[in-house]
Design brief:
alpha+beta; five-stranded antiparallel sheet; 35% strand
């Protein structure tokens, strides 16, 4: 009986606190980040700025910004490249 070849698993992505924000890491690769918008005025939407997988956005809460980063990273793996 042939032995099954073990495949290496990718490390699980995790959030780490950074200077004025949070970073989303997978091993030693930074997948995305969320920062606090310093130029935010009272009453304006989008207190947190996020960027991941070539996309940018704003969110009112930290949880929504983190969820947007995780979604952008998840969709970047599934999205087929347009020009290849």
């Amino acid at each position: 009986m042939a032995k099954k070849k073990k495949t290496r698993r990718q490390p699980k992505p995790y959030w780490e606190r950074a200077f004025r924000g949070h970073a989303y890491w997978q091993g030693k690769v930074k997948l995305g980040r969320v920062t606090l918008d310093a130029a935010h005025a009272a009453g304006e939407p989008g207190r947190y700025r996020w960027e991941a997988a070539g996309r940018l956005g704003q969110a009112d809460t930290l949880q929504r910004a983190k969820a947007a980063v995780e979604l952008a990273v998840a969709l970047s793996d599934k999205q087929l490249p347009l020009f290849d």
